[in-house]
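INTERNAL AUDIT FORM
Audit reference: QA-55
Scope: verify that the stored structure record matches its stored sequence.
Auditor: D.O.
Record contents follow.
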Amino acid sequence: MKKQAVIYFFLFLLGSFVMAQDFLSWQMNDRYFTAQVGFGFASYRGELKHNGSIQNEISNINLGVEARLLPKVGARIEIGRYSIRGHDRHAPDSSYAQQRNLSFSSTNYEISVQGIFYMKKYAGAYYKRHKVDPYLLAGVGATFISPTAELAGQQYNLYDLQTEDTEYSRFTMIFPVGAGLKWKINPFLNFTTEITYRFTLSDYLDDVSGNYPQNPGPGADLLSNRKDEVGVINQEAYDQLVAGAPRGDQQDKDAYLFLNLKFEFFLPPGLFKGK
């Protein structure tokens, strides 16, 4: 039911977005729709993140369509693919987390609807727009997660193994908030720099949230508790990392961040109008 509700929700938003053009004033019926393609860097925040760095390789791509609805308000639909990772080896030396020795990587997909709030008023025609156009954004969406971990050179799907002996949803709602700058390149093209933080309703982006399982199944017994792979580096922590003890913090939900570069193309007028 949850999956169906998410699908119906976004179909409704998609239909509402396309019909929004009927509410635009005649002054904006020039080229108020744009298509966007972007790429950039990702960073996740959760139990297995131990520094503030952003991944140093291209780790997300996205496509979107945006409409200018009011002089200072726009709306955007965006889909994307991104990769995130984390590892306890980056935790402080001899810490609890370093003794825990968990890790993950994940390639996920997302869809969102975002409201764009421009700092400057619409100039009256797309080709008269500002050379630099700052904005804020906020939205709602969903992401599908796929946490994996490596053992002996092979990747394992952590969701299937149920490393905490619990089944969680691989879909979660997301709430993007961010800011950006649009730079006018020519009458039909913008270059955009944007940073966006995605809050989520899940603590399982990294597959770490609850407690160590009492009776882990095959595979989970090796990937759920990995303290022995590094030996004893913190005796107190080593003794605590046992069945029933916490693996993570259920009260602190995971999140992720994008730092993106985008190209935005103004679409021909009337492209979405019925005949």
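Auditor finding: record pair retrieved intact. The radius of gyration is 22 Å.
Action required: none
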